[in-house]
Amino acid sequence: MELKKYFTRRLFQSKSAGFIQNRARESIEAEEIFLDAEAVRSLEDKGKLEQPIKRRNFFLFYALIIVCLLVLLLRAGYLEIAKGDYYYNLAQGNCLRIYSLPAPRGIIYDYLGRPLVYNAPSFDLTVNLNDFLASSFENQEEIFKKISVILSSAERDKESGNELLKSFTDLQDGSNVQDDMAESIQKDLRKKIEEAAGQISHLVAAKNIDRSAALVLENLIGDWPGWRLEKNPQRQYIKSSYFAHLLGYTGQLSPADLEKHPDYSRNEQIGKVGLELKYESVLRGQPGQEQVEVDSLGKSQNLLATKPAQPGQGLVLFVNQELQEKLYQTLEKTLKQLTFSGKAAALAIDPRNGGILALVSLPSFDNNLFAQGISRESLAALENDPAEPFLNRVLAGQYPSGSTVKPLIAAAALEEEIIKPSRQIDCQGGISVFHKYNPEIVYHYPDWKVHGLTDIIKAIAQSCNVYFYTIGGGYGQIEGLGVDRIKEYLQYFGLGQAAQIDLIGEKEGLLPDPAWKKEKKPNEEWYLGDTYHLAIGQGDILVTPLQMTVALASIANGGVLYQPQIVDKIVDLGGKIIEDIPTKIIRQGFIQEKNIEIVQEGMRQAVLTGSARSLIDLPVEVAGKTGTAQFGSAGQTHAWFIGYAPYENPEIILTILIEGGGEGSQIALPIAKEVLEWYFNQ
Fold first, then answer.
1. The pLDDT of residue 330
2. Which among 59, 104, 252, 671 could disulfide-bond with 311, CB atoms 3.0 to 4.6 Å apart, if both were Cys?
3. pTM value?
């Protein structure tokens, strides 16, 4: 019995072992779980039996999930709470666009409140480059095509609008209506956008669009991503060329302008020259804003909010509009009659306060071209014009003064007691000076005629060179002022320095002296002849018409040197005075009243007995001084006249300068007579 049990157990073990061996590479079946302990251990070692997952592993897994959830929760809280406003604004920025609304610039008026410029509505086509360039290339090309066709059609047919209407109908039908002009516009438009891409986000693609074209564009532009039709104020100058050098003009902002004024938007206009530039901060105003909702393609959907622009403040000038026009017309008429000169300057000042009554520089230019957007070709033509129409000759033209400086030299000689009013000098048509080392060398300084015995009043009236050689550089028994005192007194009168007018671009002129000559002409010394020439307004001396007018205005008013001033008041939109700009005195009391009266009498005698006798029949008494200033080596001369009226209580001083005009008494004086006669007959 025992032996039977033994063989039965061995047989079972043998079969089980064979079974397991044969199934080693197969999956474990359910019945195999009833193996003995040794077999189970063998299977465990071979990885054939599953082990129960330990509780620690479950704990670690759940902990990892909780940590991940906490991180997500904290991140969500950070984005919602800490950065919520930022991402809200970012999201809003994707669907909102804020556009700047340029403010109407302040109006500029003459002294009676008559406007010299106004703001006209202008239609500008602008594009948000980010929105537009995000659209497909095909869509961009289609938009370029439509814009070019509309603009070219409007250009060809500004009056009737028939062609534009036909082009619009063809566009709606999908017809190809492009021509050479349209293709050129399309090419320029594409180039402009390509150059601006990556540099700026907002571009003015086309300015001053014709009204009929704007109406057509308005019907299409809502479907174009990033495009807007803006109605902006544009400067319109009345009598443009008459006031161009006074008012100046506005234009689009350059990169330099944007760097200097980072608060400006690209669709604004900025003053470039003249009063528009000088008073930019006053005239500009406060821009407004529009908030527009756009869709995902950048197409405008709704206008959400508007902040109106605040107009700029206005300027009231001392300028008399009618006098400005008369002076311009008279000067222009004379220049057309001259075959040798087309350049001139004229200025009228109120000697009682320094107010500019009129300022003309010829040739002039049309400042409306710049406000409207001048073409490159037209700009190049103006810049390359040898007549220099951009040059404001009144304050930047520099010329020898000629005899117009003689009243100032006379005042200096009287003040320094170089000569008494009654002292006479015998003028025999010139003076001769021997060389200090070689008596055989004689320098001759001529006069324009023999004047005979001449006192200071006659010397001014008849422009006696010999008299001014003598009191300027000295001759015979008279010492003379000498170059240093001449320069000192001419500086008292404002020469050789800016007159500080409220315009930009003024030149200082030149008062030569030995130090200047040593620097500029190192091989030459300062000669007595240089002083003689300086005393009669010749040689190297340079002045501007503005400087000479201000200087002689101080003679007319009794000795007060006023700062010239164009703007009298700053006013608001309703005309209420915001600032009454005070008169500024540069200098006074440097010449005694008795000496000024003598010089005044000399200028009056120039009209009664001297070179300005043609003014004697005017309705008021006039005092003045002509001048003929040599320049260059060909014997050419500038024609000068400076005069004031009425003689007793002057209210206007007028300067006329004709470049290369010849004799002052023959060319400049008749212009002054016509203008003064008109002025005092009003």
1. 97
2. 104
3. 0.82
Q: How far apart are CA 152 and CA 182, in angstroms?
A: 5
More confident residue, 66 or 592: 592
415-441 as b/e: b if 16+ CB within 10 A: bbebbebeeebebeeebebeeeeeeee
**How far is residue 164 from each of residues 153, 178, 234, measured CA to CA in Å?**
5, 12, 24
- Give Cα 322 to chain centroid, integer Å: 27
Which among 380, 269, 255, 244 has a CA at the least distance from the CA of 324? Answer: 244
Q: By the 8 A CB rule, do 361 and 399 touch? A: no
Question: 11 pLDDT band (50/70/90 cuts)?
Answer: very low
Which residue has better confidence, 490 or 34?
A: 490
Q: Any idea what the Cα angle at residue 530 is, between residues 611 and 416, rounded to 5°?
A: 70
Q: Cα(664)–Cα(203) distance, rounded to whole angstroms?
A: 53
pLDDT at 491: 98
Angle, alpha carbons 402-533-594 (nearest 5°)? 70
pLDDT of residue 201: 78
| Pairwise CA distance, residues 427 & 129, whole Å | 79
Return left, alpha or beta for 528; rule: phi > 0 is left, psi -120 to 50 is alpha, else beta.
alpha
Task: Dump the DSSP string for 215-272.
Answer: HHHHHHGGGSTTEEEEEEEEEEETTHHHHHHHH-EEEEPPHHHHHH-TTS-TT-EEEE
Report the sign of the C-alpha dihedral through residues 255, 257, 263, 265, in that order: negative
**Partners of residue 292 on adjacent β-strands:** 97, 303
223, 243 contact by CB (below 8 A) = no
Q: What are phi and psi of 589, to 5 degrees?
A: 80, 10
The pLDDT tens digits for 118-166 are 999 888 888 888 888 888 888 888 888 888 888 888 777 654 545 555 5
Contacts of 145 (CB under 8 A, 6+ apart): 178, 182, 186
**Among candidate residues 605, 603, 600, the one with its CA nearest the CA of residue 624:** 603
Three-class SS state of 34: helix
Beta-carbon contacts of 88 under 8 Å, excluding residues fewer than 6 positions away, are: none
User: Are the CB atoms for 272 and 251 separated by under 8 Å?
Assistant: yes
How far apart are alpha carbons 553 and 551 in whole angstroms?
5
Q: Which residue has the higher pLDDT, 532 or 289?
A: 532
Picking from 528, 527, 526, the residue whose alpha carbon sits closest to that of residue 518 is 526
